[in-house]
Write a structure and sequence with these properties.
The structure holds two protein chains of two kinds.
Chain A: E1 5-7, E2 10-13, E3 19-24, E4 31-38, E5 42-50, E6 53-56, E7 65-71, E8 74-79, E9 88-95, E10 103-104, E11 108-112
Parallel strand pairs in A: 2-11
Antiparallel strand pairs in A: 1-3, 3-8, 4-5, 4-9, 5-6, 7-8, 9-10, 9-11
Chain B: E1 4-7, E2 10-14, E3 19-25, E4 32-38, E5 45-51, E6 56-59, E7 62-67, E8 72-77, E9 86-90, E10 105-110
Parallel strand pairs in B: 2-10
Antiparallel strand pairs in B: 1-3, 3-8, 4-5, 4-9, 6-7, 7-8, 9-10
The chains are: A mainly beta, B mainly beta.
Chain lengths: ~110, ~110
């Protein structure tokens, strides 16, 4: 298996622009997680899905952030409009049902200027 | 909600020495206790985990011990090697599907 796939790996954009991050989980995994990692705040859970349904979005910082999972093999995290404080590494992870083990993708490094 | 603390935040050891990182948590409902390793430029990778009905688990040079009464669990690395240098995270699961990550411990193994 190729593991969790994220794209793009790097994104540089200007403040106010829309940013879309993409994730393909490991086939057969029921859970999908979006995290954000910064030096100041560490690794934060933004939202997670179970069987394509959002279960907990309490970590989404504000309405500028939205996430979707239209099917079992694809998810997006969108930021609109982006701000410099959104600069971070965004990780997607997936997990098989019941195990608790999360498998992380390589991350997307987002820079908002 | 779950409050997770890791100690120490940085740890420097000589190659061949042992390293121990401790994680304390607050939610007594936590039932799954993993440790992740993150190398520079990569995503965290699960290296060992333990469930609440077990006190200790070992995998070659790494081990995890759990004290549910005191609400802490620890990562033990023996015979450390330079490739063990990384940031290590504990991430107890308070219930449901999510993990709560600690702030991380930066381990440096000097040759």
């Amino acid at each position: 298996d190729a593991g969790v796939i994220q794209s793009p790996r790097h994104e540089v954009t200007e403040m106010g622009q829309e940013v879309t991050l993409r994730c393909k989980p490991i086939s057969g995994h029921d859970y999908l997680f979006w995290y954000r990692q910064t030096m100041m705040r560490g690794l934060e859970l933004l939202i997670y899905f179970n069987n394509n349904v959002p279960i907990d979005d309490s970590g989404m910082p504000e309405d500028r952030f939205s996430a979707k999972m239209p099917n079992a093999s694809f998810s997006t995290l969108k930021i609109q409009p982006s701000e410099p404080r959104d600069s971070a590494v965004y990780f997607c992870a997936s997990s098989p049902r019941g195990s608790g083990e999360q498998y992380f993708g390589p991350g997307t490094r987002l820079t908002v200027t | 909600g779950e409050n997770v603390e890791q100690h120490p935040s940085t740890l420097s050891v000589q190659e061949g020495d042992s390293a121990v990182i401790k994680c304390t948590y607050s939610d007594s409902a936590s039932n799954y206790f993993p440790w992740y390793k993150q190398e520079l430029g990569k995503g965290p990778q699960l290296i060992i985990d333990i469930r609440s009905n077990v006190g200790e688990k070992k995998d070659q040079r790494i081990a995890v011990t759990l004290n549910k009464t005191a609400k802490h669990f620890s990562l033990h690395i023996t015979e450390t090697q330079p490739e063990d240098s990384a940031v290590y995270f504990c991430a107890p699961r308070p219930g449901g599907g999510k993990l709560i990550f600690g702030q991380g411990t930066e381990l440096s193994v000097k040759p």
